[in-house]
């Protein structure tokens, strides 16, 4: 059989297999049911559901979504879920049935969520992308993606629904935590690293998975920061900003892409032919798979209201360029009928099927549909991956304030330390959305990290995490939660204040939560997103479906901080959260502030390493933090024509893009150009000397911005066009060099094509967007 012959080309194999398929089998390849519904786990005895078996035998199943996913939406818990080994065996069971009981023996494409770790029980939980971006360490992030691919493929997952490449324009949006930040250039660099790390040298390797870019496109620019809201953006801005990271990832070889829920100028992305065909296929040459987000086709007929019914929505979607439907509900119900009634040309159907089959052949699923369960148990949650999670967290935590060198603390001279706040010892609150349930012993909280640190690193390893040995708990560490994230209960205040009164230093660990629960009314059972209702109660104030009107601390957290501040103790504030926090009182009164985002399972150790100076903070903000929510939008690369100020406040952020303090200091020389002028077809180099002028070694993120002084179309005041993270010993100087060519100087012109205009450009280099030195460059006519 040609399609089973590995020596044949992918195209030959696809065409031969397609020629053997019925319409029902073709449509079967385009649907993706929920994977967790295919099996039953009865106290370790894993069997397949009868409904899944019936689907396989009556046309087949092209893909499964979340066969290994565990969370409140799936109902998969630590008690009834699959361990690393069990998950691999379950996928083998699923694949074996598909191969042996379908007419053509086509393996199933297993798709999983992996934006900050494989979302399965036992998987390593890395920091959320907002922190990963704050590392500004592309190589380290690529290494993380390689680790995520190893864990996912070891269990049989072959496609991941990451990276998330949305450019955040309004941080009130609940999915801010899933994104790298507000700058397209930085996101583009991380996008390329993600594709390289996830897909590796070849998709058919045991350590590679197909990357799915999402959400295509404009999803982070929704009206009012409301999830899936309309996007009001012209083509020039779309091409310059939101499309840029996707283009870079496609050029890097991304295998799959997911259209966003939102509409742009009245057209939903799911049926936007201009985006899915003209830009993606024709302009960029993308030949991979396009898969919808969950329920996106349903929204066309009930939400966007651009389709009369499910049949109309399904036909519109596949004709616009959709190849596969996550959930499979609409395609599975309507496409066979659409072909038989002449509403859908079979050639359109065939084109989609070919893309699905091609990806399966490239992944090597026909040759090796099964995985080694022993290898899964060995690879998933390995010590190497745990240490990588800790390093990433440490490099992404941002020091926002350090008055009079309040940090680092001394392990011997800090006296009694009170750890207070709702996030001080709440494991799930520091993991972020899209996280599987975790045993408490696997996650090191801030309280765990500090106890371990002050116990002289006398740690025990439990379920892959190091924790302070219970027999050596340091007596000088005191703890009280004080309050919850949300709600107005102050019943914990008295105890927290009493604890703080006995301490010399108070570390307040406050912020937000993206922790989902099983409470009725909090989970949309169709999409997994949370529903905000008056009847639901949990501490979740961030994550998918949780958009806010303000950026302040929820509940009575600020009041708790203020009451404890009255004691006159040294006050360190650690934010653990998924979007920027705007609290002017804290900015003014805290002695030091750490922004830790959601730092993952090793976050507590990483934060302790920074608090006590074993790690010098090097994280830099990838998103501007405003003084007041009324300043929004405040992203740094807005147009120069955006206006001057409000009556009450100027337009300057509290903490600018690229900002982050260190325990040492860095000095920059004036930038030097290799020559002062160039033509649009040439390039120059710009260099700067960076010196560590402080007392300890540290890492500095050197940032290069470009200003087009006069242009035919309006431009931002500064745009990031290069960065490098350098490690320097005290007194050490390094020369950092950037190349400047057409890509750094061009913008999208009136004809919607990239142009480099002759004229003056300012090249800025420094430690953040507001602290740079400048060199002048002239671009001459060719």
From TrEMBL:
Keyword Hydrolase belongs to the record: yes
Top-rank lineage group of the source organism: Bacteria
Any one Gene Ontology molecular-function term assigned to this protein's record: beta-glucosidase activity
Domain Fibronectin type III-like: 700-769
UniProt entry keywords in alphabetical sequence: Hydrolase
UniProt-listed GO biological process terms: glucan catabolic process
Keyword Hydrolase: yes
Family according to the record: Belongs to the glycosyl hydrolase 3 family.
Protein name according to UniProt: Beta-glucosidase
Organism: Paenibacillus xylanilyticus
